[in-house]
Amino acid sequence: MKIRAFTVMLLALLAVLTLVSSVSAGCAWVLWGVSYDYLLEESAASAFGGKQPVPQYDQIWEAASAHETRQACFEHMDLAKSLLPYVKYFKCLPDTVDPREVKGR
Predict the structure, then answer these.
(1) Which terminus, N or C, of the chain has the lesser number of Cβ atoms within 10 Å?
(2) From residue 3, how far is each of 12, 45, 64 by CA, in Å?
(3) Dihedral over Cα of 74, 80, 82, 87: its sign
(4) How far apart are the first and last CA of the chain?
C-alpha cells in the first residue's frame, strides 16, 4: 500500500513539473520588423481620359529574432535596426501573437 501511495505521489509531482515547464517555455518574445512593398495598381479612368497608376504599399511583417524575455527583445532592437536598414520599424510581441494574421470581427 505504501508503494502505491508513493507511486501516485511521484506521478502527481511529475505531472505538476511537466505543466510548470510547459507554461514557462511558452513565454518567448519575438522581434518583428515591418517593411513596405511598393505596388502600382491601375485606377479607374482619370480626368484626362486614361487609366493612371495608383501607388499602394503592402505591409510585410518579418520575424527578425526570438528572445526569452521582453527586455532581451528590446535590447536586440538597436542591433536589428543597424542590420536591417530596409525595415521601417520594429515591435516586440509575445510568441503567441502573430501580426501577419488577419484579426477576426
Answers:
(1) C
(2) 14, 85, 52
(3) negative
(4) 56
Instruction: Please report, for the chain, the start and end positions of each structural domain, with discontinuous segments joined by +.
Output: 28-94
5-28 tens-digit pLDDT: 444 343 344 444 443 333 444 579
Question: The C-alpha cell of 99 is what?
Answer: 501580426
Taking alpha carbons only, the member of 82, 89, 39, 40 closest to residue 62 is: 89
Rounded Cα distance between 46 and 30, Å, is 44
Helix segments in 34-98, DSSP class H: 70-75, 77-83
Secondary-structure percent of the chain, ordered helix, strand, coil, rounded to 5? 35, 40, 25
φ/ψ region of 62 (left if φ > 0, alpha if ψ in -120 to 50, else beta) reads beta
pLDDT 10s digits, 73-88: 999 998 999 998 888 8
